[in-house]
């Protein structure tokens, strides 16, 4: 591979800063080292472009590969670029004339050549002095010599001469590949002697990180975002080498059909890509320079696919050990192979291995795979995945199926569900897999996939397998059932997933175990618009089937869904059912069902307002999921904890956590629903209207038939509040009608704890008191005898709003005070503050101004402490309207630190809001906002509002004594 630079420089900010700092403080010698394609040239050229703008003379020369070296060629090539930069001839040292014969292009600008000395050594010394003097005359100057590993000895001697002592004002930048240096560790052939005052050092470039690869992919593909899964696969395939990343992505774009399935399909496409032509040519060039022994070892490494020890390489290439050792040394010296830390040898990245593998004739490849199969079968423990790989390529299909199946079993036993899915999926995707045993592999593959997280490639493969007309009916039904579960859970397409399950039931009428599983899935009421009674009916059928089957795993599956059903609807008996879940000592497959049950219980208890129980279920679910290697329950618990933290007032860093979850779960959008909801509610609390609307809709409201119904109700409540805040009453009422209709159809009223109070407020705002009263009555009936503190609070809030609208202000104060007490006990700090604000509204109507002032001031402080800037500002506006003094929190602040109000303004400025929009959110006059913005810019030391970044947590102030606004 040549030292060609990638088109973009990313992930090298620190290295670029270090290089620029060194060369702008001459004299300096900077070594830039790294393997081929790592970006040395790009780093240097980026620095050079900046240096040229600073009136520095920059000269560049490059050593060449494979040519008869011309002494001092790279330095002389660089010196030819001095035309126009040289001082007048009479100001140059006469010794510089020694360069005239070597630089005929500059003969008119250089002093007259001195007479010949007749001694080659003296002539050489004078030439070196001339180069030194010329560079001194050009200062400040930067001399760049690239690819020093290919330099001739004369060039190395000249560079050593220039560096000791260095011309004042000269910076010397040398790039090289460390492993290709003629003398290991010595770029100039001997130790470099830096004269006193010479700075510099080594800038070592390593592979890009995962984020660096992702950033480079975004830039090269011209996209705002690429999925983490795609970036991870790209890193795996390219080893983070920028040039290889560029070549692979160029090939991806140029390969027809490989981007037809979006980024998820591109993850698979990366493994199917041909070797980029440039990398193929480079590999061929490297292989052509190897001896037969070196080529044999390289071919053996290509066949083995993964880095291997020398003894295994010897067995696969079938050559004497001395030949193998000599060939291995040669391949390492040529940069074809590299040594890994644990004494194994292999290729640097996948395209190089693939290119070398394709140069092996077919019969030789098959023979090498057979030798690898024989050698690896003696290992203890047997490397089953590698044995499966070599059996397949050796043409031993029975051994391939046997080893592959065993490898998947071992991975599943060790808790590596993704590894097991990958192994089985690779076998099933290959048309050469014998039909015998194929059905069993399909069932295992689809069953394991339910417990994974990534679903895209699995879903596509299952749909293709289901299209086989020769597939047995019972297998088709069970695989379709698993596909339905996968589509519902991981893909978040509940409508399509439930249709798959319903279709599967028709093929399972004589298969009681999978039939019961399908019915138990349908019994969970979170999806679809069937009434609760239908879900109960499905659960009853599943339980009857369980009694007729002797299947502990089925029993655990149905039991997990039954307790989920009970807890999700607030059934008081749910906690007793939870106590009977399978405990320690049960087989792993059963304990995975327990982990899933606890994850579901955590989610349901959070919705009910049973937060302590939710945290207990979370701990148990996470522990069992980790012990049994079931990633999906762990992810569910993690995302539910984000919603739980929002409810319980733990907002510190919550936005960042939620954003990280959304990013990580791009392939499983349903898992991110909680995070999206929290992001929307946080944005609503700070008055970030567009962000709030975007996130709330992303919970599933664009396709409510596939949405997670409990969270859709809460998201709709958030939208109603948003529309009311923006005085868009008609839009709020439309959301009320649609959301309440969904709630009525399902009949699980405990899910309306946020929706009903917001809907009642909207209806009362529209003067529809009877509708508000009817909704409250229906809600009261629906939550009667349900174990849900959140629903009890919601009923008190709705009744309080009705009492206020009917003029019963004292009753409203009592109801809202009771709601506040329940919320305090749960605890739900944001809910407490909202209840207090409503209570104060009724106190104002009663004429109790002192009590209203105390309550509103307390509410404003609670909102501020949480970070709910818009809510706090609304309370302060109400305080101003009743003539009460408004106090803002004040802590000990550093000089020029932003006040609480200024932090609120800064955040909205960073979001691109105009002064008028900020005034609307914070209930201030535009002129007041203008004053605050000016203070923000001054304190942050920026000139324009476009330079203000999101303050985030760093701008939140401590709360001490209050101060007047």
Automatic annotation (TrEMBL):
One of its GO terms (biological process) is regulation of DNA-templated transcription. One of its GO terms (cellular component) is cytoplasm. Residues 891-956 form the HTH luxR-type domain. InterPro entries: AAA_16, P-loop_NTPase, Sig_transdc_resp-reg_C-effctor, TPR-like_helical_dom_sf, Tscrpt_reg_LuxR_C, WH-like_DNA-bd_sf. This is DNA-binding CsgD family transcriptional regulator/tetratricopeptide (TPR) repeat protein. Keywords: ATP-binding, DNA-binding, Nucleotide-binding. One of its GO terms (molecular function) is ATP binding.
């Amino acid at each position: 591979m040549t030292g060609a630079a990638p088109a973009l420089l990313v992930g090298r900010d620190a290295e670029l800063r270090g290089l620029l700092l060194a060369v702008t403080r001459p004299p300096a010698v900077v070594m830039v080292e790294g393997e081929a394609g790592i970006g040395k040239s790009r780093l240097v050229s980026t620095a050079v472009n900046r240096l040229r703008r600073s009136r520095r003379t920059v000269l560049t020369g490059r050593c060449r590969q494979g040519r008869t070296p011309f002494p001092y060629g790279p330095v002389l090539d660089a010196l030819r670029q001095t035309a126009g930069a040289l001082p007048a001839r009479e100001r140059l040292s006469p010794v510089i004339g020694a360069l005239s014969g070597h630089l005929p292009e500059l003969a008119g600008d250089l002093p007259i050549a001195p007479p010949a000395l007749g001694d080659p050594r003296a002539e050489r010394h004078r030439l070196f002095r001339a180069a030194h003097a010329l560079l001194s005359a050009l200062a400040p100057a930067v001399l760049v010599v690239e690819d020093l590993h290919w330099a001739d000895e004369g060039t190395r001697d000249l560079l050593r001469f220039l560096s000791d002592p260095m011309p004042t004002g000269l910076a010397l930048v040398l790039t090289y590949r460390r492993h290709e240096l003629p003398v290991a560790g010595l770029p100039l052939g001997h130790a470099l002697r830096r004269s006193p005052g010479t700075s510099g050092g080594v800038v070592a470039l390593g592979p890009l990180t995962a984020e660096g690869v992702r950033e480079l992919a975004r830039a090269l593909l011209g996209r705002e975002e690429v999925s983490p899964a795609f970036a991870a696969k790209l890193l795996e395939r390219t080893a983070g080498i920028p040039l290889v990343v560029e070549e692979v992505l160029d090939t991806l774009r140029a390969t027809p059909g490989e981007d037809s399935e979006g980024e998820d399909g591109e993850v698979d496409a990366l493994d199917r890509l041909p070797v980029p032509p440039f990398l193929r040519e480079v590999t061929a060039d490297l292989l052509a320079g190897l001896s037969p022994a070196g080529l044999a070892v390289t071919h053996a490494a290509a066949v083995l696919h993964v880095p291997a020890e020398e003894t295994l390489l010897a067995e696969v290439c079938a050559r004497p050990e001395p030949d193998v050792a000599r060939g291995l040394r040669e391949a390492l010296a040529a940069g074809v192979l590299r040594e890994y830390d644990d004494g194994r040898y292999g290729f640097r990245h996948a395209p190089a291995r693939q290119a070398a593998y394709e140069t092996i004739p077919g019969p030789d490849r098959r023979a090498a795979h057979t030798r690898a199969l024989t050698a690896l079968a003696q290992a203890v423990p047997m490397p089953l995945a590698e044995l499966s790989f070599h059996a397949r390529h050796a043409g031993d299909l029975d051994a391939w199926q046997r080893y592959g199946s065993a490898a998947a079993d071992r991975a599943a036993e060790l808790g590596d569900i993704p590894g097991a899915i990958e192994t089985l999926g690779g076998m099933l995707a290959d048309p050469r897999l014998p039909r015998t045993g194929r059905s069993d592999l399909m069932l295992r593959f689809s069953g394991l996939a339910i417990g994974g997280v990534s679903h895209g490639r699995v879903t596509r493969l299952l749909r293709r397998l289901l299209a086989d007309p020769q597939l047995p009916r019972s297998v088709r039904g069970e695989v379709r059932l698993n596909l339905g579960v996968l589509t519902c859970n991981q893909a978040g397409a509940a409508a399509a997933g439930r249709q798959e399950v319903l279709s599967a039931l028709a093929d399972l009428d004589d298969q009681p175990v999978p039939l019961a599983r399908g019915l138990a899935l349908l019994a969970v009421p979170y999806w679809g618009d069937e009434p609760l009674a239908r879900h109960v009916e499905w659960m009853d059928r599943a339980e009857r089937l369980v009694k007729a089957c002797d299947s502990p795993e089925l029993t655990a599956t149905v039991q997990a869904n039954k307790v989920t059903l009970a807890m999700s609807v607030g059934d008081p008996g749910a906690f007793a059912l939870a106590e009977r879940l399978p405990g320690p000592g049960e087989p792993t497959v059963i304990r995975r069902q327990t982990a899933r049950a606890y994850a579901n219980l955590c989610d349901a208890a959070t919705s009910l307002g049973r937060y302590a129980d939710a945290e207990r279920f979370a701990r148990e679910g996470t522990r069992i999921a980790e012990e049994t290697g079931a990633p999906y329950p762990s992810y569910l618990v993690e995302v539910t904890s984000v919603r739980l933290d929002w409810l319980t007032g733990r907002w510190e860093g919550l936005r960042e956590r939620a954003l990280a979850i959304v990013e990580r779960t791009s392939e499983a959008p349903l898992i991110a629903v909680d995070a999206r909801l929290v992001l929307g509610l946080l944005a609503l609390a700070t008055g970030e209207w567009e962000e709030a609307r975007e996130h709330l809709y992303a919970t599933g409201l664009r396709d409510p038939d596939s949405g997670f119904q409990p969270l859709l109700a809460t998201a709709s409540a958030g939208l109603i509040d948003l529309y009311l805040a923006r005085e868009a009453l008609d839009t709020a009422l439309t959301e009320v009608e649609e959301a309440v209709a969904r709630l009525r159809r399902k009949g699980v009223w405990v899910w309306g704890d946020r929706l009903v109070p917001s809907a009642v407020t909207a209806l009362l705002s529209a003067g529809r008191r009877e509708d508000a009263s009817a909704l409250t009555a229906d809600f009261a009936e629906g939550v009667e005898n349900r174990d849900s503190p959140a629903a009890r609070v919601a009923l008190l809030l709705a009744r309080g709003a009705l009492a206020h609208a009917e003029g019963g202000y004292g009753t409203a104060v009592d109801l809202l005070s009771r709601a506040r007490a329940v919320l305090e006990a749960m605890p739900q700090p944001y809910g407490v503050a909202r209840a207090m604000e409503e209570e104060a509204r009724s106190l104002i109507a009663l004429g109790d101004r002192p009590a209203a002032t105390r309550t509103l001031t307390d509410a404003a402080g609670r909102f501020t402490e949480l970070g709910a800037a818009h809510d706090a500002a609304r309370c302060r506006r109400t305080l101003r309207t009743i003539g009460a003094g408004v106090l803002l929190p004040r802590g000990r602040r550093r000089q020029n630190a932003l006040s609480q109000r200024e932090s609120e303004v800064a955040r909205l400025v960073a979001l691109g809001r105009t002064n008028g929009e900020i005034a609307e959110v914070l209930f201030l006059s535009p002129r007041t906002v203008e004053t605050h913005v000016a203070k923000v810019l001054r304190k942050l030391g920026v000139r324009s509002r476009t330079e203000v970044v999101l303050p985030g947590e760093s701008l939140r102030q401590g709360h001490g004594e209050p101060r007047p606004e």
